[in-house]
Each structure stands twice: as C-alpha cells, then as structure tokens.
Amino acid sequence: MKNILVIGATGQIGSELTMELRKRYGNSNVVAGYIQGAEPKGELKDSGPSAIVDITDATVIENVVKYYKIDTIYNLAALLSVVAESKPKLAWKIGIDGLWNVLEVARVYGCAVFTPSSIGSFGTDTPHINTPQDTIQRPRTMYGITKVTTELLSDYYFNKYGVDTRGVRFPGIISNVTLPGGGTTDYAVDIYYSAIKGESFVCPIAKDTFMDMMYMPDALNAAISLMEADASKLIHRNAFNITAMSFDPDMIYKNICKYAPNFEMTYNVDPLKQKIADSWPDSLDDTCAREEWGWNPSYNLDSMTQDMLEKLKLKLK
Ligand code: SER
To answer: Which end of the chain has fewer beta carbons closer than 10 Å to its terminal beta carbon, N or C?
Structure first.
C-alpha cells in the first residue's frame, strides 16, 4: 500500500480510517474520497488530499485512481441496514453497481480492494451462536443482500481476474468521532451520548437481544492488518468473521452505570430494528481471521466504555 484511496472518507468508519492510514502511510499518500454534500472538514480536510468520488460514476473513480496513482482502494460507501430498507434501490446502486465500478477500475489499474461485509450478511436460517465462517447466508434485508453479493462479486474478481480483494464482516462499530447513520446497531453508540449528556436513554432494541460489537480502534486495525496480510496465508478472502464482544442492551447499560450511576434507560422497541437484530447472529466465530491473518482485538466492553465516556466528555463539554 503506497497510494491509497478511501471511498466514503467522511462516513463513520472512513473519517477515522483515513486519518489512521495517513498516520501510517503519510498524509499525502491517502486520498479522502467523498460525495458532494459530505465534504471533509477540519483535520480530515487539512491533513491530506481529497477528491469528489461518487461511487456510482466509474469515470470519476478512474480519473482519481489515475491521477493519484492509487494502488489500494478502501471502499466504504454504503447505506446502513435501516436506511437501506427505506431506499432499497439506492442501497443496491451504491453497494453493488458502485462496487462493480470499483472492481473494474481495480482490475484495469491493478489495485487491491477492501470492501466490508457485515453481520447483516447473515439471516434467520444462520446458526446464531458462534456463527461459523462458512455457513448459511440468506438475509432478507436489502443491506444483507448487498453484503452477500459484495462478498460473492469480490471473490469473483479475485478468482477470475486476480484482483486482490479482501474484506471482513464487521459487527456493530462503536465510535466517538462520526455518528453512524441508520444502522441497527446504532443504539450502542447513541447510549454513550445520552449518558454523557445526562439524558435518560430510550433503547430501540429489546433486552436479551445479543449482537456482536467492536470499538473503532479495533475495526481500523482489522481493515489495515487484513490488507497488509501475507496473501499466501489467506484461505478466505471475502469476507472474514471478526468480533470483539457480544452484548445485549442491558449489559451495556449496566456497564455504563459503573461509571455514571445515575444513568437511566427505558425501552421503546422499534419493530423494524428489532426484526433486523433478531435475524442477525448473537456471536460470531472469528477463528479463521485469527488463524489466517492474526486478528486479535484489544477492547472489551469495559475498556471500550471507559474510553468512550472519557472521549465524549471532552468532545461534548
Ligand atoms: N452497523 C451495521 C448496521 O447496523 C451492521 O453492519 O446496519
């Protein structure tokens, strides 16, 4: 990885991944690709190059790849699960037509491509406890359908054209820089903001609903270490199960209460979010990622809570 393009650089993961890549590979070597209306700001804007990259426009992607001599693309453009249910066609256009554009440019210009999949690529028929790496993937959400297709199309480009495609199935990502927009796991981010603002939190997901989660620093490390991994050790490519923790709303609430004893939470279950959450695994088996490229997360629920509360206190004061 010498010259890197991040598509979706102002989104929840992109905004932090771009900065982390700049730290590791040099500011001028990482281009922040964004869409009109989501321009980079502050440090993200000032620390390195940026360019409009609408993933639905293949020519624009090609021009940026040529101009900056890009050899690695992190493709983070997507609609999250809940939004995708209200805009299924757009979710497909961005997730799959967009991916096709990226893969074609990558094939012609010899780029490696990272595209995340998700716990959303599984469905009700999937074994929910210790979900294996290779198992049934029959999601019924548009988000899930685009993620399974992402995995298949990325593997297709590797097997047929030798494009170096790699991906992980991200669980819910918890972060304190950029808010996620319209996901099922967003509650696990929002709850920290409520705790710091001294508000009581209304949880849209029912007690006893377990989902895999991960703190952003681990998610960034996963994306970068997989792209740096020795290709000869990879048995899988698109995409690896990875997880750092699994909890239900009550567990995260009680953990926050250790540090904010007066914090209150009530439930008002959102039927769509609940239905999606119920169709996703409770806990993933990430053995293949550990064995094939050394995946090993650093944060658990308690260390994440301490760091989130500390960072948000500073951010929101
Ligand atoms: N965080 C995502 C969502 O909730 C899951 O990958 O849509």
So the answer is: C
> What amino acid occupies position 302?
D
CA dihedral for 7, 272, 252, 259, sign (positive or negative): positive
- Of all protein residues, the one whose alpha carbon is nearest to atom 1 of ligand 1 is 172
The confidence score (pLDDT) of residue 308 equals: 98
204 lines ligand 1 (CB under 6 A): no
Mean pLDDT by 10 residues, the chain (317 residues): 95 97 98 97 98 98 98 97 97 98 98 98 98 98 98 98 98 96 96 98 98 98 98 98 98 98 98 98 98 98 98 94
Domain 4-170+216-241 homologous superfamily, CATH? NAD(P)-binding Rossmann-like Domain (3.40.50.720)
Any idea which architecture 172-213+245-284+293-315 has in CATH?
Answer: Alpha-Beta Complex (3.90)
In contact, 165 and 154? CB cutoff 8 Å? yes
Tokens 């950029």 locate to 178
* 109 CA distance to ligand 1 middle (Å): 31
Could you write out the DSSP letters of every residue in 105-169? HHHHHT-EEE--EEGGG--TTS--SSB-SS------SHHHHHHHHHHHHHHHHHHHH---EE-EE
Cα dihedral 155, 76, 225, 277, rounded to 10, equals: -80
Point out the ligand 1 atom lying closest to the alpha carbon of residue 182.
7
Residue 62: both structure tokens together: 């090609």
Q: Is the CB of 12 under 6 A from ligand 1?
A: no
Distance 297 CA to ligand 1 centre (A): 19
The DSSP symbol for 214 reads E
118 C-alpha vs ligand 1 centroid, how far in Å?
7
Which ligand 1 atom is nearest residue 147's CA?
6
Q: Which residue's structure tokens are 């999250």?
A: 80
What are the domain boundaries of the chain? 4-170+216-241, 172-213+245-284+293-315
Kindly report the pTM of this predicted structure.
Answer: 0.97
